[in-house]
Amino acid sequence: MQRRNKTAHCLGGIVLVLCLTLPVLSGGPAAETAIHQGSSFHYNPRGKTDPFMPLIKKEIPGQKKVDLRALSPLQRFGLEQLKLIGIMSSDEKKVAIVADPKGKTYVIVKGTAIGQNNGRVSIIMDDQVVVEEQQAGDGPRKVQTKRIILNLHRVEAEGKL
Fold first, then answer.
1. Same domain? 91 vs 143
2. What's the predicted TM-score (pTM) here?
3. What total number of domains does the chain contain?
4. In the chain, N or C: fewer CB atoms in 10 Å?
5. 158 assigned to some structural domain
6. Is a pLDDT exceeding 80 seen at residue 94?
7. Which residue has the higher pLDDT, 125 or 35?
């Protein structure tokens, strides 16, 4: 009994598939519309949402977007957080050593990007480093240059400077 039911269901499914595909295979009107529709369809994305964009955006108006992966370690800290701990010079050039709040040290030279406000090392002197930051200004001068000086922190040895 169960075997007859399975056979009847199987045959019924085959008959259903043949009934649906027979007009297409024979070249009837269903086959013509399927071919005609497939060749003339063009997708127009205008006015439709992009399915790959997130539905919720985490953008805050007025906040600049910064990719932290693209920044150097020195650009992740503010200049007030960095400490100038040494300056070395030779006949050819001067280099300085700065430390971040965790104590990790970095060697900087003239032109090194430093600080969170797009600063660049402009001058390295015997006891200080000058960093220039470009800031948007008001009035006729659209860009203003701000100079920040990092002074060398000297370590006291036996109570003397």
1. yes
2. 0.52
3. 2
4. N
5. no
6. yes
7. 125
